[in-house]
Specification:
The protein has about 325 residues and is α/β, with parallel strands linked by helices. It has eleven helices and twelve strands. Bound molecules: adenosine-5'-triphosphate, iron/sulfur cluster (SF4) and magnesium ion (MG). Adenosine-5'-triphosphate binds next to helix 1.
């Protein structure tokens, strides 16, 4: 079966004089139909830039230099701008931590969702209002008739996030990319929004690429986890195996930082030291300066990714399976 999203050998760098300033540096990742894949890693590891690359939304300061991205089998890198506009929303949609980055403060909720439907030929002027209400009901917006007529600033953070999800789902994408979608919300609302996303996945069969710092959320909702460090995936595997028996010292470090293992309150706390900045990636394994298991080999030779059992990892001295 063709994966919904397939990224291979992706590299993107900061524009400017330093040709080695990579923010994504050889990243490969697949998301299958109906699957929830969590992308985790410390701040600055390149999670958001990876999400942006998928829809060619990278900021002007960052340039895609190598690699392949396929959405539903279609080559995103080579795609013409017109086709790309079509693909945004229909094949893949993105939701962000702050809904106001996607919602227009000057338009009612109804109008902005309707515009999305009309732009992509998913409704006519006659059918759009009814479809907007259906979508608001789908995301369990309370009193959708009233909310549809309101402007975003009249809605609470949680309701705005629902409106943004409704807009993202308007054209029934095959994959929803959610970049820290609940971080700005309080805990109860966070749980409601995550449950909503999972219900929608079950109902609509769409895949979700979930970017999060919250390993508690990962444990609850993800099927598979990809751990990112300094622009690369360093470990990947099914959620249970990866969280219970991480093979890569970085994954183990992230988990060890949690006060009570992976619980409801589990959030990533930084490992001692800092990740390298783009352009200052060390020779060999990029995690070596912070790794308790590093040897001379690690500082010299970049570890290849290898698969053992269900996990894939890039490390010369992996932790033994439990
Ligand atoms: N608009 C931009 N211009 C220049 N550099 C950027 C820009 N956005 C991000 N970067 C750089 O790209 C790298 C990856 O950033 P990215 O935002 O993808 O990290 P992240 O993993 O999403 O972090 P966080 O968890 O804080 O959201 C960082 O070094 C960051 O400084
Ligand atoms: S390759 Fe070496 S430095 Fe890198 S994570 Fe493995 S043990 Fe640590
Ligand atoms: Mg980010």
């Amino acid at each position: 079966m063709t994966p919904v999203l397939s990224i291979s050998g992706l590299r993107a760098r900061l524009r400017g004089p330093d040709p080695s300033a990579f923010v994504i540096d050889g990243l490969s990742l697949q998301v299958n139909r109906g699957e929830v894949v969590a992308l985790v890693g410390e701040s600055g590891s390149g999670k958001t830039m990876t999400a942006y690359s998928v829809l060619r939304l990278l900021p002007p300061a960052i340039q895609l230099t190598e690699g392949e991205i396929r959405l539903g089998g279609q080559d995103v890198v080579a795609m013409e701008t017109r086709r790309l506009r079509d693909v945004r929303g229909t094949l893949a949609s993105i939701i962000f931590q702050e809904p106001m980055t996607s919602l227009n403060p000057l338009m009612t909720i109804e109008r902005q969702i309707a515009e999305m439907l009309l732009t992509h030929g998913k409704a006519t002027r006659q059918t759009a209002p009814e479809r907007v209400i259906e979508l608001l009901e789908l995301v369990r917006m309370p009193d959708p008739q009233t909310r549809a007529k309101q402007y975003p600033h009249s809605l609470s953070g949680g309701l705005r996030q629902r409106a943004m999800i409704a807009m993202a789902l308007a054209c029934e994408p095959q994959i929803l990319i959610a970049d820290e979608p609940t971080t700005a919300l309080d805990v109860t609302i966070q749980q409601q929004v995550m449950k909503l996303l999972l219900d929608l996945r079950d109902q609509l069969g769409m895949a979700i690429l979930l970017i999060t710092h919250d390993l508690g959320v990962v444990a609850e909702v993800a099927d598979r986890v990809a751990v990112m460090y300094a622009g690369r995936i360093v470990e990947e595997g099914p959620v249970v195996e990866l969280l219970e028996a991480p093979r890569h010292p970085y994954t183990a470090g992230l988990l060890a930082c949690l006060p009570e293992g992976v619980g409801d309150t589990g959030r990533l706390i930084e490992i001692p030291g800092l990740p390298p900045k783009p352009g200052s990636i060390p020779e060999g394994c990029r995690f070596a300066p912070r790794c308790p298991s590093a040897t001379e080999l690690c500082t010299r030779v970049t570890p290849e990714t290898r698969t053992e059992g269900v996990q894939a990892f890039a490390c010369h001295h992996p932790r033994m399976p439990a």
